[in-house]
Amino acid sequence: MKILWGDESIFKDESVFDPEYLPEVLLHRDRQLDSIAVNLRLAVKGKSPIHTVCIGPPATGKTSCVRFILNKLRDFDVKSVYIRCLTYRTEYNIVSKVYEIVCEKLAPQKGVPISSMLSDISESLSSVIVLVLDDVNLLNVAIIDDIPYDFCKMHEEFSVRIGIICISTDVRFTGMLQKSGSVFHPDDIYFPLYGECEIEDILGWRIERGFYSNAVSDEALDEIVSLTVKHGDLRLGLYLLRMSGISAERRASRRVEVEDVKNAYEGSMKVFVAKSISALNSDEREVLMTIYLIDEEVSSGDLYTIIYNEVKMSYTRFYEILEKLERLRLIDVVMGSKGKRGRTRYIIKRYKRVMILEALKEF
């Protein structure tokens, strides 16, 4: 049996390809890093930072940039609380998490008013606090409005020095705010998709630190870059690097070749589709399932008729869902495809039907 044993691994540091890995250098995000740093620099002086919203498609460096700057604040009298809204989905859970970090004790059981916990948080704070809400657009709209409002009011009522950073893949996030609009005035920082050359630079940087020298062929890297650009998701490139390396080791090879990339790619799409679907609520999954159950491409108007007959969804909500599905790259929306003219939009499936439907069964 051929296999690499013991110290024969082609990986120098496999953790470099972990999605949670934070590089010491963030390539092609200088402008965004500078903007976040400028907004938070008042915290170093003991003053309230500028509220910030980081907006852009998935895997464009939003979370990494915020974490990078938060690490710089560790040397100062600034307390930071990072909350992943995919895990903490209710107002009570979010406030409880802040309470536990600031007050350094377990939050009271449910039944205690949120206002009481906010008061305790205010009394326990002796420094500036930066609250980060990652994937904030996954919260219910009412909660999205309540959280910034409640924490901003802490500044008015208790003189708490607080800066809120919201990370969102929904470009309309700020427009969702109604109640909090009077007290939450953030600076929007946009994160565009990485270009092909930028992706090649970033993946090349990871290769230098994650693999031993010459462990990835030029052809293999070109294939990974091409697939990453196609799907517009840098996380796919990192996943392919790791899994291609594992594939090469299984062949007892000290070099990643194109065949390893192709093997890794076949298994990767199910993982990435499942991650995208996990960000959808029940209505959004219903629309996605309907799209993939239809044999041919369908116009947005015809699709709305089908959806309305099933769930009586409003026209506005329907188009919001289409935009989200396109933003998560589960579908494409094009104008007048296949020779049709006019301004009719058509829905194009990005994946094989069986892959999407199998992934939906898990939810």
Tell me the strand order in the biggest sheet. Answer: 2-3-4-1-5
SS class? alpha/beta
Quickly count the helices.
14
Average pLDDT confidence is 91
Question: How many β-strands, per DSSP?
Answer: 8
Distance between the termini: 40 Å
**Global geometry:** globular
| Strand coverage percent | 5-15%
CATH-defined fold name of the largest domain: Rossmann fold
Summarize the structure in words:
The longest helix is centred in the C-terminal third of the chain and has 20 residues, at 258-277. The protein has 363 residues and is α/β, with parallel strands linked by helices. The protein has helices spanning 30-44, 62-72, 91-103, 114-124, 141-158, 173-176, 196-210, 218-231, 234-250, 258-277, 282-293, 300-311, 315-327, 353-361, and strands at residues 52-55, 78-84, 128-134, 162-168, 187-190, 298-299, 331-335, 345-349. It folds into three domains: 6-19 and 194-275, Helicase, Ruva Protein, domain 3, CATH 1.10.8; 30-190, Rossmann fold (3-Layer(aba) Sandwich), CATH 3.40.50.300; 282-361, Orthogonal Bundle (Arc Repressor Mutant, subunit A), CATH 1.10.10.10. Helix 7 crosses helix 9 (234-250), helix 8 (218-231) packs parallel to helix 10 and helix 11 (282-293) packs across helix 13 (315-327). Strands 2-3-4-1-5 form a five-stranded parallel sheet, with helices on both faces.
